[in-house]
Amino acid sequence: MAVTWTRAWWRWTGGPTTRPVERVVRVDGRSRADEPGGERQAFGRWVKRPRVDGGKRRGDGCDRRSLSPTWVLAVGCPQPAGRGGRGVGVGRDASRLAGLQRRLQGIAGGLAVYDEAPDNVSSSTYSSTPSLPGCRVAPGRRADAGLPLARVTSNRIDVEALAAMDGVGRFREVLPMLMDPVAFAEAFVSGDAAGGCRVPSRGMERHRATLRSCGVASDARSRPAFAMKAFTTPKKDGRTARLVLDARPLNDAMRRPPSMDLPRLRDFIAEVERHRFAMQCDGVSYFYQFPVDASISRYFGIGMKGCDMLLNVLCMGWSWAPCIAQRASNVLVRDLGLAWVDNFLVLGGTLDEAERNVAVFRKRAQAARVEVRAEGDDALWQVRSRFVCVGVEFDLAAETQRHRLDPSWAERWVDGSGMTAVLSGRATARQFAEVFGGAVWATDILAVPRCHFAALLSFAGRLGGRMVGAAAPVWDEVVDVPPSARRELGALRKIVRENPWVVGGVPEDTGSVLWTDASSRAWAALLEAEGRFVDGRQGVFAGPDADAHINLKEMLAFAEGVVRLCWAPGAQRCRIDNAAVVGAVAKGSSSSYAANRVLSRSLRVAGRRGIVLRPDWVPSGGQLADPYTRGTSLPRFPAQLPLPRSRATPFDLF
Q: Rounded CA gap, 564 and 504, in Å?
């Protein structure tokens, strides 16, 4: 069995052998002078790999620019032949490895040990060694490497019939990207659709027969314009995998797609909770039901050994694919319910209305030849009051409609290995990104403002900026999660573990309006009720606040108004002339750590008082609190409203 160097450190290649690899040791040494002569004689030959210093290689989970020259020792395996004739020395005494590790600890900054033979490798095998500081261990093979592809339908949607149902024209707008080679070529930024990119895939040859049998892909008779890397990701059943194409070369060459027309999550939930009954179903292998013209499929090539393949269906990984799928779904559920990519939800205020809408949806799906299936154990076309959709559990039969996280998803997120690693303070960037993505999803569904997790947001922003700015992001790099971010994540984890029901509905309006404004030196907040100012506060910025950004000053003015003037429970309208503050209040978070801290204080006070804040933007000329930030004293309350300089109507930006 050969041992070869790749981007992911050491890998095993080749077939079974009677002398399997027992251990491979990698040492981040200081210099050639530190090479241990005794170990070289007893355990094998040390080999210095070229181009390891200066960041030339990537994907190994550490920053190469900070490493010294690297030495590698292989123990207990047959003599391999490395790339370009370079070999790795082999020792004969694997039983003395423990003593070798102790001696190496004094001369090396880190040590990584590969414990498993190649046929018995799992990602859990490769974990950092706490007793050896600076240790960097190669990631194991993908957990889904041995999973078969999930059942893929051979059905193809009649896209022309679907376009004929499109009364709005949004699907017809993107249909040429599937059927018109000229329109597809015009979407390239440079105007040159010749392509020429080829990136080979690993381990995909064993799926060739499956892809060919269901008509998803066919062997390429000529070189594809873009032959890209394909990989598989595990489905939620844990037993099968889905095929995804790394279409970044194609995406980079094309212009960005238009809006998906995907509803915002909070709007999706609010619309569902306005009804009492629903029917839910999924599109079977939905992306693969969309046919692609043969002259366009050459842009969706899969780089494989021997013979490349061409996707004959919508490419999962192409930036235009979600837009096309969502707009097609919107045609099927128009005036009947909602769609979230391949999830269809048909709604009704009464049981009869829901069943009528289901009948219409069935006719549309049959006319367009869209194959659907029931979610989970539900019977197809069954109308329910309690169900799980897009990770949200709805209970529409309750006296007050309510929702919460899907309990199975919440359990996986709370007790997952990624969560454990992040809370320990030492996790890979990939693990943190997965956990943080779940945190964003959970806060949206449970209506928990993200500003309460300012340190977590701040660290995620810094890490994301570093990855975006890097020429070659290393997602397997170990990052140190700050204690403050871990504490906030632990608090959110506790909320998600409890998974409380969130009651829907719109609260009753308080009947008052809060006006807040700030200038470079002062702030003002006034409460309007029944056409008059009934209360107000004003002040001057002092200390660090005096030098703060104007957006933060506007947030401080808003916070003072909420804390000092708003007491009545219900929906509180707020008039603000700063779009950044309006957006932060509407979303429950800001991109600024300081603004999140201030907003968190405001929302905690509002929550204790039963207040739901409804921010609206007004132009500066229509801001009634503006004069009181520029030297004008507050009037004696109650007071008549001043005439605004602008008659513009306030509106909600979000």
A: 28
Give the span between the Cα atoms of 57 and 7, in whole angstroms: 7
What span, in angstroms and rounded, lies between the C-alpha atoms of 68 and 35?
Answer: 13
Distance, in Å, from the CA atom of 386 to the CA atom of 16, rounded to the nearest integer, reads 52
**Residue, of 23 and 573, whose pLDDT is higher:** 573
C-alpha 201/C-alpha 231 separation (Å) is: 7
458's CB contacts (< 8 A; 6+ apart) are 485, 593, 596
DSSP state of 180: -
Mean pLDDT value of segment 622-629: 93
- Please state the rounded mean pLDDT for residues 17-21: 31
DSSP-derived secondary structure letter, 144: T
Pairing state between β 570-576 and 611-617: parallel
CA distance 89 to 108: 19
**What pLDDT score was predicted for residue 175?**
95
Give strand pairing partners of 525. Answer: 516, 537
Q: Torsion angle, CA of 478/57/55/44, rounded to 10 degrees?
A: 80
Q: Please answer whether residues 20 and 1 qualify as being in contact, where contact means their C-beta atoms are separated by less than 8 angstroms.
A: yes
Using the Cα atoms of residue 432, residue 436, residue 439 and residue 445 in order, give the sign of their dihedral.
Answer: negative
pLDDT band, residue 33 (cuts 50/70/90): very low
What is the mean predicted confidence (pLDDT) over 12-20? 31
Q: d(Cα 41, Cα 38) in Å, to the nearest integer?
A: 5
What is the rounded CA–CA span in Å between residue 306 and residue 450? 50
- Residue of 25 and 159 predicted with greater confidence: 159
C-alpha pair distances (Å), 195 with each of 181, 190, 202: 14, 11, 21
Average pLDDT, the chain: 78
> Could you tell me which residues come within 8 angstroms of residue 650 by beta carbon, excluding any fewer than 6 positions away?
575, 616, 617, 618, 622
CA geometry: angle 88, 94, 96, nearest 5 deg:
120
Three-state secondary structure call for residue 13: strand
Judged by phi (left if over 0) then psi (alpha if -120 to 50, else beta), residue 91 lies in beta
HEC sequence for 270-338: HHHCCCCEEEEEEECCHHHHCECCHHHHCCCEEECCCCCEEECECCECECCHHHHHHHHHHHHCCCCEE
Q: Provide the b/e sequence for 213-229 (b: ≥16 CB within 10 Å).
A: ebbbbeebeeebbbbbb
Enumerate the H helices of 333-453 as residue ranges.
Answer: 351-367, 407-415, 417-424, 429-445
Q: Quote the CA–CA distance of 116 and 103 in Å, as a whole number.
A: 23
What number of other Cβ atoms are within 10 A of residue 484's Cβ?
A: 14
Cα dihedral 468, 470, 476, 480, rounded to 10, equals -80
- Whether a cis peptide bond, with omega within 30° of 0, leads into 638 is yes
Q: For the chain, state the CA radius of gyration.
A: 30
Q: Which residues contact 128 (CB under 8 A, 6 or more apart)?
A: 135, 136, 137, 426, 478
Residues 6+ apart with CB under 8 A from 225: 193, 194, 195, 196, 298, 299, 301
pLDDT class of 278 with cuts at 50, 70, 90: very high
What average pLDDT score do residues 595-601 get?
95
User: Cα(279)–Cα(2) distance, rounded to whole angstroms?
Assistant: 55
Contacts 24+ apart (CB under 8 A), 51-55: none
Q: What is the pLDDT at residue 7?
A: 26
